[in-house]
Design brief:
The protein is an alpha/beta fold. Helix 3 crosses helix 4.
């Protein structure tokens, strides 16, 4: 078996915001036959902290997710925004679909990508390995859910645009609360798909919640991009702020930050 290796960029950046200090660095690690390039954000201090695994939309890791990881670090979490495509951002919708559709149809591949990133997060000395949550958007949210269905010990799972059902019966292995957010006008996460997802959660006895944001499309949380997007995709600034508050509230409830 080939031993996994993780490379850390040697020149971390330090940013001061609102009286806090966060440190960020790039981490490289193998997954899905690629060299993934994640973004790790650390809060001020030297103590162990609860941690958040943060997954991106199907287009891949971008500055949007990096800023979210930084914001979580400012709240006191160790945060790793993980990669999907070996350091690439797939702005061409057809290229993105060619990569993501087979991935979404293969729970084991999704779990492999999630576990590889989770291993990196757990190996970080600042991480409390017993207090980790997974938050994901689109494909990244599907990966967060598959980690739960694989029985990973998480404190919370939060998803946006990822009401995706799994293999029959495996949701019963989820060991934490699940929150999902979706736009009411999202043609990709349809009402029928939302209903199937909530039925799966309910049948498994999960502590679950679904927030439907009225008038919002798919990827409503993601600021407008300068490349072609699929029909039914669109930014909704107000609901984007609300969804972020819902994510933060989920973490505050299930994974509170405590300091000595």
């Amino acid at each position: 078996m080939t031993k996994k290796t993780t490379k850390t960029k040697k020149t971390p950046g330090t940013t001061r915001t609102l009286g806090t200090t966060r440190t960020t660095r790039t981490v490289e690690y193998p997954a899905d036959g690629l060299t993934m390039i994640g973004h790790l954000a650390l809060p001020a201090g030297a103590d162990r902290r609860p941690a958040v695994l943060l997954g991106p939309e199907g287009t891949g890791l971008s500055d949007v997710e990096r800023r979210r990881a930084d914001a979580l670090a400012e709240l006191g979490y160790v945060a790793l925004a993980f990669d999907l495509h070996g350091g690439r951002y797939l702005g061409d919708p057809e290229e993105m679909l060619a990569r993501c559709m087979p991935l979404l149809a293969d729970p084991d591949r999704m779990r492999g990508i999630g576990h590889a990133a989770l291993d990196v997060l757990r190996a970080e000395p600042r991480t409390d390995p017993d207090r980790i949550a997974a938050i994901g958007y689109g494909t990244g949210g599907a990966i967060a859910l598959e980690l739960g269905r694989d029985g990973v010990d998480l404190r919370a799972i939060g998803t946006v645009n990822a009401t995706i059902t799994g293999r029959p019966g495996e949701a019963a292995r989820i060991r934490c609360p699940v929150w999902a957010g979706v736009g009411s006008e999202d043609p990709i996460m349809s009402p029928a798909q939302r209903a199937a997802f909530t039925a799966e959660m309910q049948a498994a006895g999960i502590d679950w919640r679904l927030s439907v944001y009225g008038g919002a499309l798919h990827a409503f949380h993601h600021p407008t991009v300068d490349h072609t997007v699929r029909p039914g995709v669109g930014y909704h600034p107000l609901h984007a702020q609300r969804a972020w508050r819902d994510v933060v509230d989920l973490l505050a409830e299930c994974l509170p930050v405590t300091t000595d």
